[in-house]
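My hope is that you will study the record closing this message with an eye to the fold:
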Amino acid sequence: MVTVPCVCGVSVHRCLMLRRHVALEKEKERLMGKHDCPRCEGAIPTELHKGQYPGALSRTDNETEICSQCGQDEAWEQMAGVLRPRDKWESWLAWRAATAITRDLIGVASLKLLASDD
């Protein structure tokens, strides 16, 4: 039997087996509750309910599963017209902290307006 090498250096048969194994391991991790949000590296759907049910779908590609908080943040961003593309997720933690502060400030300002109406 002739073994033809793959580009990665192992036989084609062995390479295909490794690829299948990696794909199966990724699926196993997903099913076993190792859910990490690609945006913030938090748990999917939340830290309290990690892996118990699906998270939100990212609005950037409608395929990627993200945590509930990032799903809410994307909704706010889309309404504001500043939805970050997937390649900008590296700096997401700092952006998320800034949007949380902004939402808190908006909430405080709204409460002051409601209080002043009385």
Remarks:
- DSSP finds three helices and two strands in the chain.
- Strands lie at 56-57, 65-66.
